[in-house]
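Lab notebook page, bench 4
Experiment: in silico fold of construct C2
Operator: M.H.
Input chain length: 175 residues
Purpose: comparison with the prior construct
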Amino acid sequence: MNYDRGDWHIDSLEDGAPEHYAWVHIGLFLRWAVVRGLEFGRFQAVDENGRDVTEQAHAATLEAAEQVRTGSMTGSVFLEEHFDTKFFSGVLVGSADDFARVYYLQTGKYLEDYSTAVPEDQTYKVDETDEIFTALKPIIDHRYEAFEAAGGKAPGGFMEKLRLAFGGSPRWTFG
């Protein structure tokens, strides 16, 4: 399941804008995941001769993640080079993937939170910067901690996890 893809946003760019502006918001989320130390999935990979290179590809992803963590690579470049600008189920593992699915995809709260760091009219007009990341990181951290405190994958059901992690009274429902 795709959570987001850079190519879905290309048409939103202004003429002459760098193409990677279309996936800065996705790259910032992955940067947060890297800095947070969340685990990335392993994907089957084969080279041009049909040989299995899954382990080498995963090692390259982890090496690039370290570059993101240390600031020598942006999350947007990481997304482009290692995931072809696609953020999908399995990029992150376990409860991190559950969180991404709920926060990023199902509730849309990530894009709401992103707009507090980048005004909506600037969404496709900015490059990934430390200033934007610094503004966004504590917001995502708070959402993730609330999600984990609500049990992540614990019993209570999907709607209960959403309500506890993202606010709402005990009678609040999605409708």
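Observations: The helical segments are 24-36, 54-70, 75-83, 95-106, 109-117, 130-149, 158-166. Residues 169-175 have pLDDT under 50 and may be disordered.
Next step: discuss at group meeting.
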